[in-house]
Write a structure and sequence with these properties.
- Helices cover 34% and strands 13% of the residues.
- It is of the alpha+beta class.
- The strands form three sheets. Strands 8-7-6-9-10 form a five-stranded mixed β-sheet, sandwiched between helices. It has a three-stranded antiparallel β-sheet with strand order 3-4-5, with no helix packed on it. It has a two-stranded antiparallel ribbon with strand order 1-2.
- A hairpin with a 4-residue loop joins strand 3 and strand 4 (104-107).
- Bound molecules: zinc ion.
- Residues 88, 90-91, 93, 107, 109-110, 112 line the site of zinc ion.
Length: 361
């Protein structure tokens, strides 16, 4: 292996379509499709443990030790990002040399140097890869989320940096899938928050229910599949129908409660209604799955984040949906899936605080 080029060695490490074994452990890696949206197309890569100094970490403690080594961080991130060999983000050149002392590559064609952070959510961040990867491990696996205060205390970055870092990870976790849900889909809406008195009047204006100051949120759950969530302007027919039409394949079975806004869903879907005043389950007709998701979400918002600004609520929804949608995997699986979606996304501080409009990615 020592005589092969970096590119060849890299290509040998991953083989699309295989499974991935690291020593005695087996970690399923998601496929990278167009650099994005890998969570919808899980494939496996063959991964040879011999290319890693140690076995791939399984626990937070092992992850912190493993990623305290800068070379381990760079190897892991580059193998995940460029399974076919390192590619220059500037000119797509494949002929690159690795400057191991600085963990940088230099492109032979355009002469530019680049790190594995370039073109990812971590670009321009002065925070080291060791801390980024530890933070990702924490947020991907903490059932009830993790606050910026906890990240500040455990990783030794300022709370402001921790807050920005966590929001960038949430941005990466955003589901960008265009594949519609199908089969049996539970649809429900709920309200989050509700401390209207703490809010600026301009924010209160945008809320779905002005009296309580709560924000309307909608969830769609494909049974035995994935959940999608979104902040909605209100719970009138137009608000709800448009989301169901956008996210669910027509002709699917859709289950809702007896809210009248859902009344006409039967025109496009097989609509099952459960009237909670009478009962909660009627054969296949129930919304227990999505209700369970709401309780997890509310527990994490109340317990961990204490309060969430309405402007940022959708990011917490993305975070909770990510963990829910990867619930069947191990901690290492969830971590790898979160890291794999870092590329191709950006979020500047100005965008985060609303001074600039976020660009669509
Ligand atoms: Zn180049």
């Amino acid at each position: 292996m020592a005589s092969t080029s970096f590119k060849a060695a890299n290509a040998a490490r991953f083989k699309p379509g295989g499974s991935f074994t690291g020593g005695n452990s087996r970690v399923e890696l998601p496929a990278i499709v167009n650099g994005n949206y890998i969570l919808d197309s899980p494939a496996r890569f063959l991964y040879c443990s011999s290319t890693m100094k140690n076995e791939f970490p399984k626990t937070l403690q092992q992850a912190i030790i493993y990623f305290s080594d800068a070379e381990n961080c760079t190897n892991f991130l580059s193998q995940l990002r460029w399974p076919e060999g390192v590619e220059c983000p500037n000119c797509d050149g494949r002929e690159v040399s690795y400057l191991s002392t600085r963990c940088l590559w230099k492109c032979k064609a355009c002469k530019k140097q680049f790190s594995v952070k370039v073109g990812s959510i971590m670009e321009d961040s002065p925070i080291g890869l060791d801390k980024w990867l530890a933070a990702i491990w924490l947020i991907a696996n903490a059932k009830n989320g993790i606050s910026s205060m906890e990240i500040h205390r455990s990783l030794g970055v300022t709370q402001k940096s921790a807050w920005f870092l966590l929001h960038r990870i949430r941005k990466a976790m955003q589901n960008g899938s265009f594949v519609k849900l199908s089969g049996h889909v539970e649809v429900d809406e709920t309200y989050i928050g509700g401390k209207a008195r703490n809010m600026h009047i301009s924010k209160r204006k945008h809320l779905g229910s002005r009296d309580t100051g709560k924000i309307a949120v909608m969830g769609l759950l494909e049974r035995h599949g994935k959940v999608r969530t979104m902040v909605i302007e209100g719970t009138k027919r137009g608000h709800l129908h448009s989301q169901v039409a956008k996210h669910v394949e027509s002709g699917s079975n859709v289950y809702t409660d007896a809210l009248r806004s859902y009344n006409e869903l039967g025109q496009e879907f097989i609509h099952g209604v459960i009237n909670h005043a009478e009962r909660y389950v009627d054969g296949l007709i129930h919304t227990n799955g999505i209700e369970n998701f709401w309780s997890l979400l509310k527990r994490s918002i109340k317990g961990t984040y204490v309060s969430v600004e309405p402007f940022h609520l959708f990011r917490y929804l993305d975070e909770q949906a990510f963990r829910f949608n990867t619930r069947k995997g191990t901690d290492a699986d969830r971590f790898v899936k979160a890291v794999a979606v870092l590329t191709g996304k950006r979020l500047t501080y100005e965008e985060l605080i609303g001074k600039k409009t976020e660009t669509a990615h």
